[in-house]
């Protein structure tokens, strides 16, 4: 039985080209479907019955829960069916149209499901099949019989068994009943029905394309049947026997012929209808309906399988053909005569319908003419066909058309051969061959057919264009939206592109079509790469492109270009279009969305393929690609590192040499971004650039400096001066002089803020270096040279990874010295420009100029005393001094100190005598950060021996609040940002710039309050301790705080510190817990209840509840008691609550504040300073800076007391507003966290 089924199937599965259908057969199928659906819609009981069947099948299985999206799909199907009923019952046409529109919109949702799989326990193919069946009803109610038939056939393709058994069994038998044999299984029959249904649908789509310029096929195929039905209802059929219309009724096949063909196993709708010619000669009797019955009523008189029923259907089917020409009795398997033949060959019964302006259709003169002179060449380019087609192939091409052309030459004049009907007919056949050819060995034939189309539209005669353009457009768009065949969609898209290449106005016509972008997006996702061009030409908004979710498909097209060529007048390829749209996706949205898109394309695999595209040296591709790569480099340092190794320098130099400004600007941006990397790698890339016709490049950059927009003049100057610096000539260079003059001019000018900012940035990093992420590290490199060594101090500076190898780059020092030497040759003009820039009110400009002054000063100090350095000291010192005061960023204070130290050495020391007391005070406060401040302070003390005045006034500069997180229980600076731990277990990261703060990150991994935060030098990490008995290790990854490790403890954590690779933990139990690198834990000082600790120079100092201080050397495993416990019966009140070390002194606080040098403590001497608290008052928290000691006491928990460190005198107080829960000093600012979650900060004036 299986073999019989296979043989049965093989007999009906022919290729489209070997078994053609003509328009008569297609219209007959449309008429047949139309009649059955009309009958179904006129029967309320049948509609209700089918609706109940569908609804019962859509019941969701009880699985305990379901996805909302799945319920939405079923809901759309249910209400889509309900809306059809409401439309049928509505008496108002406007209301009916509204219900139909809603129904179609809802049914499209389940119809778009994948056929495989299930939704809410229901097979997707069942849902999709029902959706398409009811969509066919919607189209019937709208009067669109053609689309109705398309939807019905699609339901057969999805689930033929459901159509056969439940949805339309009678119609199924009429269309596919001949496919059944006794031996066939149901599966074989359904598969055969799918094959036949696919054949019908393909030819329906085919005739949509080739019927342009005529009355729409659906009107001929559907409205005619409706007309016949209405006439039957008026009982006028008996009078029509003598008219032209019913001359064709006599040609309908009889039941006997139907049975004969069925017995032979060859019956199919198109073959039944093709017997018209044989039957017409012997069957010329009248055929009337029974009196008193309309057409639908007549159908109901007979059983579906009876001969009378079939014959009555055939009557209506024959009526569907009554407007067709007499050529309809030709063979349906031969497409020699199409609808175009019939219209040109003879006059149809209603010839007046095809007359235009009184001219018969057979000889309409050419008008609204347009010449497709480039059509052939574009097709050849698309299919990579050689320009010279071998002459021997011409005869082969003529085979397809020889019979047709011969007949026409016998009947027509020479004008007919060249008129647009003949050309469109040849186009029809060639397009059919392209769309339906399958299997291997067909590519040569495809090329021939494409060449044929090219010859058609390359004719010297002008063809009528405007009359057929809209028809071609509509049908091609319909195919794109409905076809599921990749090749058909690809050819349709190609045809549209060719139409656009001839007439750009077609784009506006296409834009009017709803949902077309969605269909084109689906085509692109199915690897129809030409769809990318069409989407690009439609110019969708960035939001629309994002909504189509095209990025993966666009990347696929861009990375697999395979040397595509564009259409001649469009000058765009799928690759170009894809790259242009990728550029939109990575540049047109907010920071987060752009980065999300960039993250999807920034892998080395994709970047390597994109870089290869740049080698094509296509202008528009190169410009868009440069913008994409620039964004990738800004996103991720790994992208820049990878691109620096594989970037095709020549491809971007090609853009730089182009005359188009946007190409030059794109190249300049690319080189500006990629050169923001470690100095040794940048030098290597600069050498690569110089190897490509360096003299030409230098002149190109010089031209850019003189002619480009201000911003790009600076980018060109930056690249030019760096390329020129590679030369080791000691003389002057015209290139270098011009470039530096442009930079100096922009730094000093305040007319254009953006160019001033950019110029200051370029100049400040000209001799320095960058990280791979593009962050300028020149300031960090200089600060490190100034002696900033403390881990805590370095973490007050933003955006610097102090463990980055580029800060140890060996080539940075040599490049800095050489560049500074060449810049200093410009003399006083350099410092005059920098003096104006450092006074700028724009923060980034003054900051950049300060870096540049510090860089040049450090290099001039190496060169020795000079008049230029003294001149610079005179004009710069007073401005630089402003950066020394508290309130400036720590790196600016250190750079200003570096400037003062270098410019005042030697002869300039006399300038220090003019320093005010305030400046001396600032240097004294900086002395704890850098040795240079300490040295300068010694000089000023020498010139000004009087004791300096200490200003005790403080001003609030900061207030950070976050409602709902509880008390701010811990504070610390990490990576230049303030991290705060809260009682709800969260850690928040605040970015502070002056008096402005912004929450940049929040993590809530702890389950209970965060009690402490500290820095962990190995891995450049942050530690947090919590009452939930865990210590967490955090790292800043991609500018986000990520927990990388959790260390479990047995007791709640009170305090955490680090000593080398060891983590020191104080818990509520006795002793100090030492967590080693292996995460093994040991306890030291087991007999002591430790309250607080501090670490300095490898030594740990512990404050205990018995008021003793223990000194522990973790590495040597040695401990000693440097302060014995106080002998008192009130031991619990003598606890040391805070201990810290400042400038070699150990300070502790409890019932009193005491301080001595470490040596004195070891001698067990009396403390060198002592501050007694009021009776019953304990110090809860303490912080020490150069001039002040800040205390928070139990008697006034919301107040910070200010004491002079040198005189042990209380000089002021700061009110926090609520109970203080944490205290921190950093960069001479005192911070406190309070119970209400606020963080406040004050600086001394």
UniProtKB/TrEMBL annotation:
The keyword Coiled coil does not apply. WD repeats lie at residues 978-1000, 1003-1036. Keywords: WD repeat. The keyword ATP-binding does not apply. It holds the Pfam family ARM_LIN_C. Gene3D superfamilies: Leucine-rich Repeat Variant, YVTN repeat-like/Quinoprotein amine dehydrogenase. Residues 585-939 form the Putative E3 ubiquitin-protein ligase LIN ARM-like domain. InterPro entries: ARM-like, ARM-type_fold, ARM_LIN, ARM_LIN_2nd, LIN_N, WD40/YVTN_repeat-like_dom_sf, WD40_repeat_dom_sf, WD40_rpt. Residues 28-180 form the Putative E3 ubiquitin-protein ligase LIN N-terminal domain. Residues 422-583 form the Putative E3 ubiquitin-protein ligase LIN ARM repeats domain. PANTHER family: OS04G0584500 PROTEIN, TRANSDUCIN_WD40 REPEAT-LIKE SUPERFAMILY PROTEIN. This is E3 ubiquitin-protein ligase LIN-1 isoform X3.
């Amino acid at each position: 039985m299986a073999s019989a089924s296979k043989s049965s199937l093989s007999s009906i599965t022919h290729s489209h080209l070997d078994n053609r259908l003509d328009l008569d057969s297609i219209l007959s199928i449309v008429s047949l479907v139309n009649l059955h659906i009309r009958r179904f819609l006129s029967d309320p009981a049948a509609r209700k019955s089918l609706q109940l069947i569908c609804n019962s099948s859509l019941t969701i299985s009880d699985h305990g829960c379901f996805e909302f999206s799945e319920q939405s799909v079923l809901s759309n199907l249910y209400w889509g069916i309900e809306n059809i009923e409401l439309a049928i019952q509505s008496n108002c046409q406007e209301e009916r149209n509204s219900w139909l529109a809603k129904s179609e919109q809802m049914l499209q949702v389940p119809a778009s499901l994948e056929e495989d799989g299930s939704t809410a326990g229901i097979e997707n193919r069942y849902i999709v099949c029902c959706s398409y069946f009811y969509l066919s009803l919607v189209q019937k109610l709208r009067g669109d019989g053609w689309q109705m038939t398309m939807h019905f056939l699609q339901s057969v393709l999805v689930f033929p068994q459901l159509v056969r058994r439940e949805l339309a069994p009678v119609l199924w038998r009429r269309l596919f009943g001949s496919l059944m044999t006794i031996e066939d299984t149901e599966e074989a029959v359904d598969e055969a029905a799918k094959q036949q249904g696919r054949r019908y649908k393909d030819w329906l789509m085919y005739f949509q394309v080739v019927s342009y310029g005529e009355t729409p096929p659906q009107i001929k195929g559907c409205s005619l049947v409706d007309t016949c039905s209405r006439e039957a209802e008026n009982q006028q059929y008996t009078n029509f026997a003598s008219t032209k219309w019913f001359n064709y009724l006599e040609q309908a096949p009889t039941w006997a012929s139907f049975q004969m063909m069925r017995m032979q196993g060859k019956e199919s709708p198109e073959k039944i209808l093709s017997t018209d010619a044989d039957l017409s000669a012997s069957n010329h009797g009248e055929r009337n309906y029974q009196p008193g019955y309309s057409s639908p009523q007549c159908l109901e008189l007979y059983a579906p399988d009876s001969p009378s029923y079939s014959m009555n259907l055939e009557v209506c089917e024959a009526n569907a053909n009554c407007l067709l020409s007499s050529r309809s009795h030709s063979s349906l398997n031969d497409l020699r005569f199409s609808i175009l033949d019939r219209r040109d060959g003879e006059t149809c019964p209603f010839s007046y319908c095809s007359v235009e302006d009184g001219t018969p259709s057979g000889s309409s003169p050419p008008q609204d003419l347009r010449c497709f002179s480039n059509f052939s060449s574009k097709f050849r380019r698309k299919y990579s066909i050689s320009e010279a087609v071998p002459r021997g192939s011409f005869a082969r091409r003529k085979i397809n058309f020889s019979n047709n052309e011969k007949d026409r030459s016998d009947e027509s004049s020479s004008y007919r051969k060249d008129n647009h009907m003949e050309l469109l007919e040849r186009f029809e056949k060639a397009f059919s061959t392209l769309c339906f050819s399958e299997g291997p060995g067909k590519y040569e034939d495809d090329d021939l057919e494409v060449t044929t189309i090219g010859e058609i539209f390359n004719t010297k005669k002008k063809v009528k264009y405007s009359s057929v353009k809209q028809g071609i457009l509509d049908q091609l768009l319909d195919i794109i939206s409905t076809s599921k065949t990749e090749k058909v969609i690809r050819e349709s898209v190609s045809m549209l592109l060719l139409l656009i290449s001839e007439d750009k106005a077609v784009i506006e016509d296409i834009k009017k079509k709803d949902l077309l972008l969605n269909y084109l997006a689906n085509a692109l996702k199915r690897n129809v790469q030409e769809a990318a061009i069409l989407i690009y030409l439609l110019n969708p908004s960035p939001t629309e492109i994002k909504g189509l979710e095209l990025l993966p498909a666009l990347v696929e097209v861009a990375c697999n270009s395979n040397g595509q060529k564009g259409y001649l007048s469009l000058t765009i390829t799928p690759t170009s279009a894809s790259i242009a749209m990728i550029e939109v996706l990575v540049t047109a949205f907010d920071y987060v969305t752009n980065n999300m898109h960039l993250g999807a394309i920034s892998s080395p695999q994709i970047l390597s393929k994109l870089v290869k595209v740049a080698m094509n040296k296509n202008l528009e591709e190169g410009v868009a690609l440069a913008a994409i790569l620039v964004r990738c480099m800004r996103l991720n340092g790994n992208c820049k590192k990878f691109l620096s190794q594989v970037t095709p320098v020549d491809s971007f130099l090609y853009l730089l040499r182009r005359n188009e400004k946007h190409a030059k600007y794109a190249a300049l941006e690319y080189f500006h971004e990629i050169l923001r990397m470690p100095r040794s790698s940048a030098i290597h890339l600069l050498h690569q650039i110089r190897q490509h016709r360096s003299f030409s490049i230098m002149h190109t950059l010089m031209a850019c400096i003189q002619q480009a927009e201000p911003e790009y003049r600076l980018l060109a100057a930056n690249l030019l001066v760096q390329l020129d610096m590679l030369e080791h000539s000691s003389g002057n260079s015209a290139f270098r002089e011009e470039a530096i003059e442009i930079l100096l001019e922009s730094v000093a000018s305040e007319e254009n803020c953006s160019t001033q900012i950019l110029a200051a940035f370029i100049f400040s990093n000209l001799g320095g270096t960058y990280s791979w992420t593009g962050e300028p590290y020149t300031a960090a490199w200089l600060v490190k040279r100034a002696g900033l060594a403390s881990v805590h101090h370095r973490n007050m500076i933003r955006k610097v990874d102090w463990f980055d190898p580029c800060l140890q780059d060996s080539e940075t020092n040599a490049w800095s010295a050489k560049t500074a030497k060449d810049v200093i040759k410009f003399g006083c003009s350099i410092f005059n420009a920098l003096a104006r820039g450092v006074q700028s009110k724009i923060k980034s400009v003054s900051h950049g100029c300060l870096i540049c002054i510090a860089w040049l000063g450090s290099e001039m100090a190496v060169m020795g005393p000079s008049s230029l350095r003294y001149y610079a000291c005179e004009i710069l010192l007073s401005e630089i001094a402003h950066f020394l005061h508290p309130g400036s960023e720590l790196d600016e204070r250190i750079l200003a100190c570096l400037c003062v130290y270098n410019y005042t050495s030697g002869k300039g020391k006399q300038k220090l005598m003019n320093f005010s007391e305030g400046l001396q005070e600032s240097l004294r406060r900086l002395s704890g950060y850098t040795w240079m401040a300490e040295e300068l302070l010694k000089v000023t003390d020498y010139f000004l021996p009087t004791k300096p005045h200490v200003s005790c006034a403080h001003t609030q500069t900061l207030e950070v609040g976050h409602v709902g997180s509880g008390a701010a229980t811990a504070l610390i600076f990490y990576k230049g940002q303030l991290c705060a731990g809260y009682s709800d277990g969260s850690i928040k990261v605040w970015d502070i710039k002056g008096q402005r703060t912004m929450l940049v990150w929040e993590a809530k991994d702890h389950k209970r309050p965060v009690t402490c935060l500290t820095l962990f030098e190995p891995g450049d990490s942050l530690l947090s301790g919590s009452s939930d008995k865990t210590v967490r290790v955090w790292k800043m990854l991609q500018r986000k705080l990520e927990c990388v490790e959790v260390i479990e403890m047995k007791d709640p954590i009170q305090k955490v510190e680090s000593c080398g690779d060891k983590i020191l933990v104080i818990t509520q139990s006795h002793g100090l817990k030492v967590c080693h690198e292996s995460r093994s834990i040991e306890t030291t000082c087991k007999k002591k209840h430790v309250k607080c600790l501090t670490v300095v120079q490898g030594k740990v100092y512990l404050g205990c509840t018995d008021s003793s201080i223990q000194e522990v050397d973790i590495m040597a495993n040695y401990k000693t008691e440097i302060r014995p416990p106080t002998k008192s019966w009130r031991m619990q009140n003598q606890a040391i609550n805070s201990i810290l070390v400042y400038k070699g002194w150990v300070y502790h606080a409890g019932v009193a504040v005491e301080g001595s040098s470490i040596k004195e403590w070891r001698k067990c001497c009396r403390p060198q300073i002592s501050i007694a608290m009021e009776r019953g008052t304990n110090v809860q928290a303490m912080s020490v800076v150069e001039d002040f000691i800040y205390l928070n006491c139990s008697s006034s928990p919301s107040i910070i007391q200010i004491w002079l460190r040198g005189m042990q005198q209380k000089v002021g107080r700061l009110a926090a507003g609520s109970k203080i829960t944490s205290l921190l000093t950093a960069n001479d600012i005192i911070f406190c966290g309070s119970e209400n979650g606020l963080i406040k900060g004050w600086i001394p004036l």
